[in-house]
Amino acid sequence: MSKQIKILCITNRHLCTQDYLAQVGQIARSCPQAVIVREKDLAEEEYEKLAGKVMKVCAQYQVPCILHTYVEAAVRLGAEAVHLPLPVLLSLAKEQKSCFLVRGASVHSPEEAVLAQAAGATYLTAGHVFATDCKRGVPPRGLSFLREVCAATKLPVYALGGIHAENAAACIQAGAQGVCIMSECMQRTDWSGGFTGWNV
Length: 200
Description:
This protein is 36% helix and 18% strand.
């Protein structure tokens, strides 16, 4: 019997083909594992304003909302979850880490996975696994890389980069807990089936 793959949806308003908050609402209504508010090209003040709106949309559908990069903004908004580049996680004081029940980190090697786990991460994203327009011209690291990262840590690992319904199951078979999608959720226009078909 197949089961639905756990999905983290990452926002990117530049990919959105309709109203951004409306798209976030469609995503949240489909009940992913969580929504990560990336938007890291924004200055912290603007990010905080936008993230606060996304948090309200996610709360409406009882979907966890994970803020990205800006730790102080996340604290001010009362966020319980944050996703950080590894250097930011490594620089956090113990008191800052304790503000969040969920602490994600982006890793790009098994060695970084070990560092993130020691630094108090509760889950990891690993990428990019497949070719993606977000990293155009940069060779993907592949499933062998994902397998090595998963083997190096006890933390849940979410595969990232070029993932869609047809290749997501291969990531789970390589040891990932779930997958991250950005273009697949931000550019989607038909949400009638939710995440039907994302199974393993």
